[in-house]
Amino acid sequence: VTVLFHLGEMATATESLDESTFEVLGAEIGYKIEVVSPEDEDKELLESFGLNLEQEELDEDDDDLEIRPPVVTVMGHVDHGKTRLLDAIRNTTVIEGEAGGITQHIGAYQIWTEHEGHDRAITFIDTPGHEAFTAMRARGADVTDIAILVVAADDGIMPQTVEALNHAQAANVPIVVAVNKVDKPEANPAKVRQQLTEYGLVAEEYGGEVMFVDVSARQGTGIQDLLDAVLLTADAGLDLRANPNKEARGIAIEAKLDKGRGSVATVLVQGGTLRVGDPIVAGTAYGRVRAMIDEHGERVEEAAPSRPVQVQGLNSVPRAGDLFLVPEDDRTARQIAEKREAVERNAALAKARKRMSLEDFTKA
Ligand code: GTP
Ligand code: MG
Question: What family does the entry list (predicted)?
Answer without folding.
Answer: Belongs to the TRAFAC class translation factor GTPase superfamily. Classic translation factor GTPase family. IF-2 subfamily.
